[in-house]
């Protein structure tokens, strides 16, 4: 389902992609801009401005998609691929830190958010690491029910509906992320064999 949504989103963002191509804006520049905007969204979360943070996160996510589109149409580099992946992890870590600060000042009525956010960021980073490590060994590892696009969409959903809903959404992402880590582990072990 998300593959179809991703394709439709890329089509929607095509005019912006063409703008960057026309003005010779490099994929790396777009990566840096996406990261800066993601940091701004995290700052808004800390201040409790969740609804605005949602739209800022979405814009950062759109730029993250566009840098890949631009890279595929220009001379992409290993440096660009490394920067894109690394700054994605920086952005996710910043979001997790922002959630910690937010829930310190706005405690969830039921959930203890500290361990949930810890699981949220751990599984986010491990999911990405396992794919990178598997691909470094020459194996495809795109399996998993909770990948980055799903995390971005669900997080924004939580931000729109407020703190209590956001807490439950982070829990869902964390638990589904754990399943994704397990999926990728056994998928890669199966491909390696022996």
Note the overall shape: globular
Strand content: under 5%
Give me the CATH fold name. Answer: Four Helix Bundle (Hemerythrin (Met), subunit A)
Q: Total domains, how many?
A: 1
**Rg value:** 17 Å
Q: State the low-pLDDT regions, or none.
A: none
Largest beta-sheet details = none
- Helix share bin: over 70%
CATH architecture: Up-down Bundle
The CATH class assignment is Mainly Alpha
Q: Mean pLDDT score, rounded?
A: 89
* Series of secondary-structure elements, N-terminal to C-terminal: HHHHHHHH
Annotation, overall tally of beta strands: 0
What do we call the CATH homologous superfamily? CDP-alcohol phosphotransferase transmembrane (TM) domain
First and last CA, distance:
34 Å
Report the total helices: 8
State the secondary-structure class: mainly alpha
Can you characterise this structure?
- By secondary structure, this protein is mainly α.
- It has a single domain, classed as CDP-alcohol phosphotransferase transmembrane (TM) domain (Four Helix Bundle (Hemerythrin (Met), subunit A), Up-down Bundle).
- Helix content is 82%, strand content 0%.
- It has eight helices and no strands.
- It has helices at 2-12, 14-22, 27-46, 50-73, 78-105, 113-136, 148-161, 163-192.
- It is globular.
SSE blueprint and pairings:
Elements: H1 2-12, H2 14-22, H3 27-46, H4 50-73, H5 78-105, H6 113-136, H7 148-161, H8 163-192
Helix pairs in contact: 2-4, 3-4, 3-5, 4-7, 5-6, 6-8, 7-8
Quick structural gist:
This protein is mainly alpha-helical and 194 residues long.
């Amino acid at each position: 389902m998300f593959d179809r949504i991703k394709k439709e989103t890329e089509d929607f963002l095509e005019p912006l992609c063409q703008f960057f191509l026309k003005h010779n804006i490099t994929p790396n520049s777009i990566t840096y801009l996406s990261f800066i905007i993601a940091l701004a969204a995290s700052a808004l979360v800390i201040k409790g401005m969740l609804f605005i943070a949602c739209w800022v996160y979405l814009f950062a996510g759109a730029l993250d998609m566009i840098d890949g589109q631009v890279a595929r149409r220009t001379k992409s580099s290993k440096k660009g691929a490394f920067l894109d992946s690394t700054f994605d992890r920086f952005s996710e870590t910043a979001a997790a830190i922002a959630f910690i600060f937010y829930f310190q000042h706005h405690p969830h009525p039921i959930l203890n958010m500290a361990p949930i956010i810890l699981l949220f960021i751990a599984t986010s980073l491990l999911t990405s690491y396992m794919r990178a490590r598997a691909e470094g060994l020459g194996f495809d590892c795109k399996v998993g029910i909770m990948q980055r696009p799903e995390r971005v969409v669900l997080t924004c959903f939580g931000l729109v509906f407020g703190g209590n809903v956001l807490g439950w959404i982070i829990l869902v992402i964390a638990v589904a992320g754990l399943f994704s880590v397990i999926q990728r582990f056994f998928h890669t072990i199966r491909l390696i064999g022996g």
